[in-house]
Structures are given as structure tokens and as C-alpha cells.
């Protein structure tokens, strides 16, 4: 009987030793898991820190890029500030500068503006498709006052003559007559922004969308204030409903 009890005690002690050993292994495994979790947590923190640093760097670069774009746009505007664009001008065979100057002086007579050759710094025919019969002219005046007077004179002439607005005959071109569209010269950036602004105005029932001194303006109705559009982001913000 004693031997049987001793055997049971030995067996129980063995079980306890095995359990203790198993527990020690589990504790060691848990320690390893804790270490691994700590390592992963440290790695994640490091990655988050790097991401935050990269975001700050990206934001800084974005600000610098925006500032650079604004400087380039300002420079481009200063280059074209005395220029106007005449669109849909018929192409001529063996065209010369003198022919273009003569056409502009003829036009100035129709719009009752005493324009002289010395008032025009440059006239350039813009590139177009080979099969196109018309293209645009860029006219650079000697100062911004002349440019403004020219645009105003064109607008007034068209207002007085709704059935005979400025066309190719006013520049001395032979038939067929083509309508001529005159506007101030815009930079490439402003041209795109003006297009987006016109699209926005049409979609959102704005009565007026125009340019003045290189600026793009919107006006909801005659009584509402004018809005100067400086960027595509600003247009998007106008479309975003305000949260009350």
C-alpha cells in the first residue's frame, strides 16, 4: 500500500515538474512575444515619424512650387500686359509685317481710334494647322493705355453696330468675310483658368465672366460683387456648400 502511494506521489511530482517546465516555456514565449511587439511598435513609430517628416517636406515643397508658379505667372503677365489677341484672322499669301501693320491701321479707322504705326511695338501671326484658313494675331502696343483704349474702342464699335461687328473686311481682307474676335492676351495659365471660370459660370448661372488687366472675374448678377478668380482651387471652393 505504501509503495502504491509513493508511486502516486512520484507521478504527481513528475506532473508538477512538467507543468512547471511548461509554464516556464510559456512565460519565456510570452517574453519573446512582448519583445517582438515592442520591436514592431518601435518600427511602426519610426515609420510614422518618417511619414510625418515626408508629409512636412511635401507640404514645404508644395508651398515653394506654388510660390515659384506665382512668380512665373507674374512674369508672364508682365510680358503680355500690353498685348491683345485678334482671333480668326484670314491667312495671306506671302504675308509681311507691313501688311499686318496696314491691316491694323485700317481697323483703327473703323473704330475711330487714331492709331499710328509707332503705337504698335510688334505684330505676330500665331501658328495654326496647315489646313486652317485663319489664325490669331498677337498685337503688342507700346503701353497699357493704348491697349485699353483699343479694347474699349472695339467693344464700343460692336455695341453701335450689332449687325456689322468687327470682321475681316474692316482689316482690308477680301471676301469671304469672317468674324474677328478681339480680347486681351492672356498667359497660358490664365487662358486655362478663364476657360474653367466660364464653364463654372455657365453651370452655376453666373451672369458675367470676363477678364481685365489679366485678371479673371465672375459676377452673379448686376447687384452682386465681382469675384477675382486666382486659382482652380478657388473655383472649387466656390462650388463647395458652406456648413452652417
Automatic annotation (TrEMBL):
<dbReference type="InterPro" id="IPR057251">
    <property type="entry name" value="FP_C"/>
</dbReference>
<keyword id="KW-0175">Coiled coil</keyword>
<feature type="domain" description="FP protein C-terminal">
    <location>
        <begin position="187"/>
        <end position="238"/>
    </location>
</feature>
<dbReference type="Pfam" id="PF25298">
    <property type="entry name" value="Baculo_FP_2nd"/>
</dbReference>
<protein>
    <recommendedName>
        <fullName>FP protein C-terminal domain-containing protein</fullName>
    </recommendedName>
</protein>
<feature type="coiled-coil region">
    <location>
        <begin position="2"/>
        <end position="78"/>
    </location>
</feature>
